[in-house]
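Replying to the earlier thread about multi-chain prediction with a worked example.

Input:
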Amino acid sequence: MDQNLVDLTEKLSLSSNKIVLTSSDGDSFEIHEAVARKSQTIAEMLDAGCTGTIPLHNVTGKILDRVIDYCITHVKEDGPFEEEEEAEEKEAKKKWDAEFVKVDLETIFELILAANYLNIKGLIGLTSQAVADHIKDKTPEDVREIFGIENDFTPEEEEAVRNEHAWAFEDSK
Amino acid sequence: MNYFPDEVIEHIFDFIASHKDRNSISLVSKSWHKIERCSRKRVFIGNCYAINPERLIERFPSLKSLTLKGKPHFADFNLVPHEWGGFVHPWIVALAKARVGLEELRLKRMVVSDESLELLSRSFAGFKSLVLVSCEGFTTDGLASIAANCRHLRELDLQENEIEDHRGQWLNCFPESSTALTSLNFSCLKGETNLAALERLVARSPNLESLKVNRAVPLDALTRLMSCAPQLVDLGVGSYENEPDQESFVKLMDAIKKCTSLRSLSGFSEVAPLCLTAFYPICQNLTSLNLSYAAEIQGNHVVRFIQFCKRLQRLWILDSIGDKGLEVVASTCKELQELRVFPSDLHDEEDNNEASVTEIGLVAISAGCPKLHSILYFCKQMTNAALITVAKNCPNFIRFRLCILEPNKPDHTTSQSLDEGFGAIVQACKGLRRLSVSGLLTDKVFLYIGMYAEQLEMLSIAFAGDTDKGMLYVLNGCKKMRKLEIRDSPFGNAALLADVDKYRTMRSLWMSSCEVTLGGCKRLARNAPWLNVEIINENENNDLMMERNEEDEREKVDRLYLYRTVVGARKDAPPCVTIL
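Result:
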């Protein structure tokens, strides 16, 4: 995937500007500006004049590492350097994405939070879909457990909502 | 555990679409309930009187797609008075007033007026899709408003509606700038069509995938339409009783050959055999074929046609195909999933066995089509042995509707009831969700249904059973029952009242010409205030019914329709309907 970057910087004759991102737990990552700009948040910071090192207080090193992998893989899309892709390349990326989210739920949660904070559109979508897949076909009790959420409905409130669902807003058949 | 900002939850919910999942997540917590309801786009309401428009909008203000169903199913058999209800107008008024961004409206068995359609067309700037199935009450003037005012219209799909055709220029009302159509179905219109307007519309709709014209579109027009829309996937043709001349035939065939994406074919209210042969070039691509309107064409022409359709998954046909024809289907259509065989002549006095189907055809299909899961079969006779064989051949039925035309007809070889046959079906088909029974049936068949049909959601009963026990077996046994409709069967108050709470778990119950009395219905209504218990008596009016004294509590109720609701008795009931 590094070939992408070489091609890009050649094509655009950009100085290969490097940005350093530091994680909440002190790890540093040096990456090309094109890659960093996949994050709308970072892009805005750069446009506002930030240079050199950008501290990311909300993201651990372990997660930032993965996020950067994603950005490198997808650097050609949705960004300032958008390019048309071959069908083969698209297929390869799809497979890569599928593998990317084959991790434990805790990690996916951290990834979705990071993607949201860094505002990386494709990654938000990918991780949201992964979480949604975990919720599908589950009962409210199961979902509460997965997310560690307390049930704050009173029994009467809950029954009223359940009735409304069952009686008015059914599953379509 | 983790803290998720609302916007992250919203992103996740973007990928949760099914009504069931959305209902589940909205029960997780109050905060999730709010996020979910503000983001829900598609709502399905199986009974329009279970809730009202105000409650709908209050809960789901961001709604884009609404599906509503009105009259109960037996309305299809003329058992529900026209004025019974199911009016869409209050819904459209409320949605317009609340400025809901409605884009799609799908209605089934509802009353729609031209006024409603006009209001709809003017109130929702982004409106894209209107699907009306078995609706009534409007004219082509209403369609003209839709055509003229819905700038972003993509889909106008009219299936089996009663539409007064003013033979106007509604097709002309699509502005020249309208180029977004993907689906246009006006097959149920009875009048003349402005062909020039239609051709221009199709020519400027490059995304048109589904086109179903009415009977008044002649062959040469059809040829021109297909020529400028070779991308069509789904085509419904008109009526062609005259054999085309050589030149027309060649032109038609050439146009058809170019439609390489065509997968679904319907229409043919009349079709000369030669016309049918023009479609041979695309038969091998067809996955769906509906020839159930082609009453005049002989079975053998239909059979010859089907022989080329090796990829059919869905076939709707008339019983004029005969058992022999079904045997051909069985050996040709190995991908068949859904079959409907309709009666070609309900008033046929002669016992013309050539032009109908029997248990032989059904067995052949079950043996030849391993993927079959849905069947609707009208026939003149049946046997237990055949049904037992069918059950063994096809344990994967999800929908099994058998309609023996003569009520109470027994197994014609043994003169016994068909209890054992249907018993075999429910026992073998563990995934069965919909069942219609017919023929001579005792309480025993319902014992079987209650015992085995664990997934059954909809059951239609006519002229069947002996005592209340029959209905009780079903109510007690079928835990997933949603819609139960019964006519002309000896079930009465004992069955109706045995387990009132059962009706909390069902969408509706219909009973007509049964043994339930006014007293029984009144008692039910008293014990279940969350039900609307409707008595439909076409020859009565409200006031007369309420004045009745105790004697008349024993009077049998003509038609009973009950359904659960969160909003109490409806206010729009006509005089022939009393809500207890």
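The interface with chain B takes residues 109, 112-113, 116, 124-125, 128-129, 131-133, 135-140, 143-144, 147-153, 158, 161-173 of chain A (CB under 8 Å).

Feel free to reuse this layout for your own posts.
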